């Protein structure tokens, strides 16, 4: 997979298990307050149930998926960059709000309500900008998850494991086939299973042609 550095493997603690589940794995980079990168060395965390319950094919798919994250340094700088963009945009937005308030006071004589108007506008700007950044970040993360799936399928031919894992997610873990919303940062289980099936069919077609 063109990874030329060691990856430290660790067992999930209780906090990680509550967030990622008993049958899962994830790649993590050390960060200060979970935003500022401290090292580019990837840590690969596995749960107790990863080797106990998942089949070797499912393990292969998940390992390949997470190693793609490690290879491309997904989420190493992303959160820090988005936070920095948010703070810069917030600074310039607050400057414009101040000018807008001065304009309203000068034109419409809102001087008696200047303080309350400023509070309301600052809150609206903060909330709106925060929502826009979160939606953008979720779309960006969804693209990264799609990329990790696709490279795992292409490099390791792990489509059988992907199909079994996403069916397990719905059957045993009570997840929905379709997960929608503006704050969803992963493709749905249905979508991921479908492109695993497509990759499997393409592989079978290529073998039959060859």
Protein described:
With 210 residues, the protein is mostly helical. It folds into 2 domains: 8-79 and 133-209, no CATH class; 80-132. Helices cover 65% and strands 11% of the residues. The chain has 7 helices and 3 strands; from the N terminus they run βαββαααααα. It has helices at residues 14-20, 48-52, 56-72, 78-108, 114-156, 159-171, 189-209, and strands at residues 8-11, 25-32, 36-46. It has a 3-stranded mixed β-sheet with strand order 1-3-2. A hairpin with a 3-residue loop joins β2 and β3. α3 (56-72) packs across α6 (159-171), α4 packs antiparallel against α5 and α6 packs antiparallel against α7. The longest helix has 43 residues, at 114-156. The mean pLDDT is 89.
Comma- or semicolon-separated keywords:
mainly alpha, 210 residues, three-stranded mixed β-sheet
Mean pLDDT: 89
Overall 3D form: elongated
The major sheet is characterized as: 3 strands, mixed
Please write the string of helix (H) and strand (E) elements.
EHEEHHHHHH
Oligomer: single chain
* Number of DSSP E strands: 3
Calculate Rg over CA atoms: 23 Å
User: Which regions have little confidence, pLDDT < 50, spanning 5+ residues?
Assistant: none
Write out the strand line-up for the largest beta sheet, numbering strands in chain order: 1-3-2
> Helical amount among residues, as a percent range?
55-70%
Sheet/helix structural class: mainly alpha
Question: How many separate structural domains?
Answer: 2
Percent of residues in beta strands?
Answer: 5-15%
Distance between the termini: 25 Å
How large is the count of helical segments?
A: 7
